[in-house]
Design brief:
By secondary structure, this protein is an alpha/beta fold. It has a domain at 55-139: Nucleotidyltransferase, domain 5 (2-Layer Sandwich), CATH 3.30.420.270. Helix content is 38%, strand content 17%. The chain has helices at residues 2-5, 24-45, 86-100, 115-127; strands spanning 55-56, 67-71, 77-79, 82-84, 105-109, 133-136, 138-139. The strands form 2 sheets. The chain has a 5-stranded mixed β-sheet. It is elongated.
Length: 144
């Protein structure tokens, strides 16, 4: 009677039992596709503010863990990636420094930016109590 009701470990006469293992092949395929997508898109997402830095024969500074302030050609100010007017920058930067306590501030200014704009931003940075301000420049190739 048990054979007629389909009892036991087999589903029918002559069939194999069910396999409850996880198919890892499709999981690995999806993981590799995601890895390739992230490898392609990661360099694209590292944009930033487009500025043409002046060239200098000094040792170039590379931003490490500090805060980056950028002045573009049109005089717009960027705190990391956030655009601010000069009035907003002047009002918020001291509070930002007090809350974040950066190890240093790196000032990136476009070589075509007005000198007065760069000096005004530098004054706000220094008046906020930041003693370590680095001016970022492109390394100059010296022809010999």
């Amino acid at each position: 009677m048990a054979g007629l009701l389909g009892g036991g470990g087999l589903r029918g006469h002559g069939e194999l039992p069910l396999n409850a293992d996880i198919n890892v092949t499709s999981l690995v395929d999806v993981a590799f596709v995601l890895l390739i997508i992230f490898m392609i898109t990661a360099p694209i997402m590292q944009g930033g503010v487009d500025v043409r830095l002046p060239r200098a024969a000094a040792r170039p500074l590379e931003p490490k863990s500090g805060l980056v302030v950028t002045v573009d050609r049109d005089g717009r100010i960027f705190l990391d990636q956030t655009a601010l007017s000069f009035q907003d920058f002047q009002a918020t930067f001291p509070a930002f420094v007090r809350s974040k306590r950066p190890s240093g501030v790196y000032l990136r200014a476009d070589g075509r930016a007005a000198y007065a704009n760069v000096v005004r931003v530098l004054f706000v940075i220094r008046s906020a109590g930041v003693a370590d301000v680095g001016l970022v420049a492109e390394p100059e190739t010296i022809a010999r």
